[in-house]
Known about the structure:
The protein has 279 residues and is of the alpha+beta class. Helices cover 22% and strands 24% of the residues.
Amino acid sequence: MGMTSGIDGDEYRLTPEQTEAFHSGGYVVLHRFLLEEELRPLEVTFERFKSGAVQGMGRDLCDMSGPYSRPFDEFNMVNCVLPRVYDPSLAGNVFERRAESVARQLIGDDATLDYDQHLSKKPGKDGAVFAWHQDLGYWPTGTPDTRTTTCSLALDDATLENGCLHVVPGTHLEPALRPHKPILRGRKGTRDETHALSVALESGEVPIALPVRRGDITVHNERIVHGSGGNPSDCWRRTYIVAHRSRATVAHERSIGFTHSHNDQVQWETHLEALEASG
Length: 279
């Protein structure tokens, strides 16, 4: 009999087939990653962020489909960056622990938490679109080791109707990142209007949808082209994200002042800025 995957305490055991799917296609879907009794406590804290009750977040509370200046009550989707910084009680929770076990199986024993994020698409919001992008396009250039796993936990069933994740399989194997452009153009070399970037799909590419049930996760590579559509349904789509990179890479990021916060004042050379400088 082949090896079976699933929960083993703080671990989630992967099969060789799941590991191969991640490396060859750039993503894998893992079912029943958290049980109902494990999801409910996380939801309590998540709801505080989703409702805007957590104060002092600055630009770490924003709408990734529009400008920073958009009023909270007009958001299409509520994006909360680094929630564990603003509520340290999240640190070390069961999702973080289990996701780290997956990261270590996929990218090595030196995998460590890099950042976390809460993302909530409001019901009835066609504009709750997360533009096509590659995660690495958001990060400083020159990082020598870019091994990453990004685990996205479904707190609601994610469907075609409410804007589930779509990926373009195999794009993580391309030799270079695609040109990224801001969805709103600010001053050159900055993202003073919005943090969101986008890339274009190439002719003939057909993204595939990754619908998941509550408690499932998707895991994707930082270079895969991915995005998600709006949410015209009458249901929320809530997602809790944690990303892991190598311990040395995280240390390098912090040494140059890069924390993934939208409030950071340092202007790093990003993939976007490098393209502008060369163009």
